[in-house]
Amino acid sequence: MGLAQETLNELFVELQRQDKDERKWKHQKEEGKDKLGELEAVIRRNLLNIMDKYGLMGGDEEEPPTETGDHIETNRVQSASFVKDERLEKLWEHAKSEAQFTKEELEDLRKELTHHHEKWKQYRDLVSLVSAHEDRDNNLVGNNVPHDEEGISKLRDEMNMQQQEVDRNYHRLKVKVLERAKEGEFQDHRVRDLWKRAKAGGLSEEELEIMKEELRHFDSKIAKHDNLQEQLDVAEDLLNQGHNHIKQKHEKLSTKVKEHRRYIKKLHATLDKKIGPHNEL
């Protein structure tokens, strides 16, 4: 990170204060307060200000939100507030082109995607803060300054919790969009193709119901693979940025993705053979 020792010490003090504020906010949230997210916005603004002050924002980050009077500006763009997030872009385009959303529902979805993008950026900021803590302690090796292992541990725990929350929320949004697809019985195009062929193959009603259950299983396995692949992409991105603390998680995800990919390929071939050849028109 290249910060002078005095600057690192100042950063550490501000991080401790930020940690106290976040714990206070979490307590209020558990009590059902801050329903409009106003305190959360203030917490995020303060976090971004710390990042900006100590040069931790990076070249592509947005400017920290500013506060004017009692109103907090959140830098939300009406239609393109998550355009740099490829996963959310794909969901948004799928929702507009293939899902049966009304205009009002699309606007609500856009707001949900925007909020998710903000949560994702907050997680990335926290990853950088953990790295800043670790850099500080590495610079103190050999000195008589005590290390704050407890503080770093809390930040790591918070980082892991936020990652889980972001992953769960993205999966929820993905399911919400795909469930409203025009071919709504199945999410993946391969499964929809198999189901279309099964219905045209002269199967009895009972046989079709059995096949539908098998295809639902196939569809869920594909969704699981896609979710793991997305987590792997995120982990690989962070690993390439030097966040070596997720190396073990990256390796586990890579193994799981390969296993799911082999299983899906084998199951697809089995179902394809069971349903029979394509009917060429």
From TrEMBL:
Alphabetic keyword roster: Receptor
SUPFAM superfamilies for the chain: RAP domain-like
Gene Ontology MF term list: heparin binding; low-density lipoprotein particle receptor binding; receptor antagonist activity
A biological process term (GO) from this entry: regulation of receptor-mediated endocytosis
Presence of the UniProt keyword Cell membrane in the record: no
Highest taxon listed in the record's lineage: Eukaryota
A Pfam family per the record: Alpha-2-MRAP_N
InterPro entries given in the database record: A2-macroglobuin_RAP, Alpha_2_MRAP_C, MG_RAP_rcpt_1, RAP_sf
GO CC terms: endoplasmic reticulum
Residue intervals of the Alpha-2-macroglobulin RAP C-terminal domain: 83-281
Residue ranges constituting the Alpha-2-macroglobulin receptor-associated protein domain according to the UniProt record: 4-57
Full protein name: Alpha-2-macroglobulin receptor-associated, partial
Species of origin: Paramuricea clavata
